[in-house]
Amino acid sequence: MFFDLLMCVIEGVILVYFINHVLELKRGKIVLMLSTAMYILVSWMLNEMNMLVKMISIILAFFALCQINYKGKIISKIGYVIHAFYVIIISDISISNVIALFQQTSIFNTIINSSYSKVIFSFVIKLFNLILFTISISIFKKVTKESETFYWICFDIVSACYLTISMAFVLLFPVTVYDQGVMTVFFFLAVFFLITSYIILYFFARLCELHQK
Question: How far apart are CA 181 and CA 42, in angstroms?
Fold first, then answer.
């Protein structure tokens, strides 16, 4: 229970780290800290729920946190929130596949066999989250608050599609039975989605930059 809460805290801090770099704070740090604590509590309390219900609930909770604490258009906040949760899910898929293929076992067995494996697995994923968010921040720096709304609408739609497909990957992920062929295909699909999503993100930022000029 404590470990699950710790992971929720780390994830919440990473999400706020990302959103702090792409949006401008409109309220004090105390309000942000309280909002973040509430978000972490909601995320932890929903830990045992159905994955789809949990994801929808915590996405809405994090969007509420952004609305309360940050300036900017709603359409851009939606894009940032969708991208943030896509990064979290695609990190889970990618790292899960790598560990399972390396250990030649299902990811389910990797996690339950020992608490040590679960700790390593979880921290590696959070580190990968942090790396991907840092890359995202550097790309999003080209996007300003005056960027064309049409570009944001297109980005939101594409990002929502990527998030939906990545959630479908999680639901279909072969967690209980080890099958090297199937898990290798899943791994390459996850890598393909990850690379193409960042290519789209780069071109979106480039379009916004050119529009400004």
Answer: 37
- Distance, CA of 182 to CA of 163 (rounded, Å): 21
Report the SS3 class of residue 71.
coil
Q: Is the dihedral of CA 82, 127, 167, 56 positive or negative?
A: negative
- Please give the Cα distance from 55 to 102 (Å, whole number): 28
d(CA 91, CA 14): 13
Distance CA(160)–CA(163), nearest Å, equals 5
The residues facing 25 across adjacent strands are 70
Distance CA 203, CA 85 (A): 20
Report pLDDT digits (tens) over 45-64.
988 778 788 889 999 999 99
The span from the CA of 46 to the CA of 102, in Å, is 31
Instruction: Write out the two tokens for 160.
Output: 């929502």
Is the predicted pLDDT of residue 174 greater than 60, yes or no? no
Token digits for 175?
Answer: 């967690």
Cβ partners under 8 Å of residue 129, min gap 6: 11, 14, 87, 88, 91
Q: Alpha-carbon distance 18 to 14, whole Å?
A: 6
The length of the chain is 213
- Based on its alpha-carbon atoms, the radius of gyration of the chain, rounded to whole angstroms, reads 18
